[in-house]
Specification:
Blueprint: E1 7-11, E2 16-20, E3 26-31, H1 38-42, E4 56-59, E5 67-72, E6 77-82, E7 88-92, E8 94-95, E9 101-102
Parallel strand pairs: 8-9
Antiparallel strand pairs: 1-2, 2-3, 4-5, 5-6, 6-7
Length: about 120
Amino acid sequence: MGKDGLVYACDRRGHRIQVFDKMGNFQKNIAVKFDPRTQLLAGPEHKSGALGSAVWAGFSPDPGQKFLYVTNQDNEKIDILDRASGQLLSSFGRVGHQLGEFTYAHFLAVDSKGIFT
């Protein structure tokens, strides 16, 4: 639940984050797109679109929670979205097993200073 009082629920295979009020009333969808070219980088064992692009979501530590961080397993990236508009602002990571690369990422943590772990 964000500081705005809304509940943000990941729908990994629906490629979206669904937003509800506290009573469970639907408010909006935030699309989390996947790039089918990821499969070309990862090889045949990584079927882009099958894992889910909205796996985990967390908020930036600023008072307004301006950013929504989303683990996008299909792209093996962390997407940074504008929480209010849902617009993709940036992302980091790529497919692999080395520094800066992800393989089946499921979550991340953001501390009070905005540091990812």
